[in-house]
Design a protein that fits this description.
With about 160 residues, the chain is of the alpha+beta class. It has one domain. The protein is about 45% helix and about 20% strand. It has four helices and six strands, in the order αααββββββα. Strands 1-2-3-4-5-6 form a six-stranded antiparallel β-sheet. The longest helix has about 55 residues. The chain is elongated and about 75 Å long. It starts with a helix and ends with a helix.
Length: about 160
Amino acid sequence: MRGRFFLILAFLATAFPIRVSNRNENRSRTYAFETAALKAIQTLNTAQVQYNSAFGHFATSLTELGPSDGGTSHASAADLISGHLASGEKLGYKYTLTGTPGGYAITAVPSAFGLTGSRTFFSDQSLVIRENYGQEPATAHSREVGTAASKRSQRW
């Protein structure tokens, strides 16, 4: 009887650290996807500034910022972002770019919520990136990225 108890205890002791390790790996992977999404939004904002400078208005779709088939950039394909990002999906996030009366709106949502990200993002011609913790897409009224962390650090 005692031998079984120790065998079960030994099994649990080895299984538990593996479970904790997997949980930490998942958090690290999710954080990496979210960080990549933030970088992609920065890239899209930069591309929009360049597009506006070259063509006098903001792009209204990702394909307008993407590579051209013929190699020569033009308003329909300015070659400012990679084809992968222009396709609308990159590194665990789906991106949309739409034209608005005052400029443009970018949204980024996880491809698989909880696995590739637990935040959604929004940005526009203000170049401010906003976030929402949860599946609800972030909007122009969502909190600015880093705001919660700044408030937490002020309390300490």
